[in-house]
Amino acid sequence: MLPPRLSTRARRRAGEKAVLARQDRAKVKEQVASGELFFFDLFKDERRSIARMKLMDLLQSVPGIGQARAQLIFERTNISPSRRIGGVGHRQIELLRQEFLLIKNSRKSGKLLVVSGPSGVGKSTITNRLRTDQRFWISVSVTTRSIRTGEVDGIDYIFVDENEFNQMIKDNQFLEWADFAGSKYGTPKKAVDEALQNGKNVILEIELNGARQVRKNSKDAILIFIEPPSWEELTNRLINRGTESEQSTQARLDRAKEELLAAAEFDYVVINHQVEQSVAELVSLALR
């Protein structure tokens, strides 16, 4: 048996009602997204247009809940993703409240920022300015090179011998590691993971090859390349640093030419004219 045919006037009225219902639902989602309306107030709303609204659509309008998290909530509460607002029972509402409480109390993971660039460009000077900023955690690399005057083991680097470093490689303890200027450098994986889980923005100050490894293994990492204002400025900084032999300085300059060509591989480039400005740019990139 065919359904009765609607008159032109009835079809027009039905179409107008459907438009108004969509407008109601769109406005509600905007109000929930802006915080003007509380998610759980909608379960008391007596409008038919809201009662017919899909719970999935409403959930995804809540700040911090995207499609993936909404799907996880449905799985944990055993609520059907096709359920509409008017069909959600009291027990299910309580389960949703528990999920919202978990979201509120869960710690947001930090960002992984990789800072790289040629020797002498000022990477350490920039990152060291953020050591006292509670929003950041500066990773301490492990290295086989000799400790320099003024450096502190465990603060500037973790200094180990060749055998110990190689054992750490075998034990898969590094997020990345690389040879540079005759020594090995590596980032301890466990410490980085713990800092990220604790909500810290983690900064890795590492060489180009290490940055490439992180890019390959950590798709969410933000890669930032520090450039000198000019080649002449970089040369002067390396020579005036006085921590390297003439041969080592020249080797670093030769490598710097190659590293500068790799800037296009990074997400952002910061030109280190002034340390304070570069630090501010780094903070801005982390918190955006």
Low-pLDDT residue spans: none
Name of the CATH superfamily of the largest domain: P-loop containing nucleotide triphosphate hydrolases
- Proper CATH architecture of the largest domain: 3-Layer(aba) Sandwich
CA radius of gyration: 28 Å
Overall tally of domains: 2
Order of secondary-structure elements:
HHHHHEHEEEHEEHEHEHHEH
**Structural class of the helices, strands and pairings?**
alpha/beta
What is the mean predicted local confidence, pLDDT?
88
CATH class assignment of the largest domain: Alpha Beta
Q: Could you tell me the CATH topology label of the largest domain.
A: Rossmann fold
Largest sheet: 5 strands, parallel
* Percent of residues in β-strands: 5-15%
Family: Belongs to the guanylate kinase family.
EC number: 2.7.4.8
Domain Guanylate kinase-like: 110-287
Enzyme class: transferase
